[in-house]
Amino acid sequence: MKICSATEGNGNTWTINVTEPGHGLNFGYVLRGSVGGEAITIGEGWAIEEAFGGLSNAIINDVWIEQNQQNIDNAR
């Protein structure tokens, strides 16, 4: 994955991960940050796993819940 971070005009830092060829979810990206104390994760992709809404919600989107909670706990 290629990873870049940037701080936008409101002072919120965002990190974007972009998949590379050979990754199971290529082509795709995940944008992660925090606004007003709320962890936000947004992602999209063209992989077959994301082409079916139910599969995407059940498998791909839920994978970030635990990671977001770990990040929140570590920041405290």
Write up this protein.
The protein has one domain. The protein has a four-stranded antiparallel sheet, with helices on one face. It has helices spanning 48-51, 53-61, 63-75, and strands at 2-7, 13-18, 28-35, 38-45. The protein is of the alpha+beta class.
Brief digest:
The protein is built from 3 helices and 4 strands; from the N terminus they run ββββααα. The chain is an alpha+beta fold and 76 residues long. A 4-stranded antiparallel sheet has the order 1-2-3-4, covered by helices on one side.
Give the uncertain stretches in residue-range form. none
Number of domains: 1
Please work out how many helical segments DSSP would assign: 3
Biggest sheet strand order reads: 1-2-3-4
Q: What structural class do helix, strand and pairing data support?
A: alpha+beta
Overall pLDDT confidence = 76
* SSE pattern, N- to C-terminal: EEEEHHH
The strand count comes to 4
Percentage of residues in strands: 35-45%
Intertermini distance: 28 Å
For the sheet with most strands, the description reads: 4 strands, antiparallel
Tell me roughly what share of residues is in helical segments: 25-40%
Shape, principal axes of CA atoms: globular
- Rg result: 13 Å
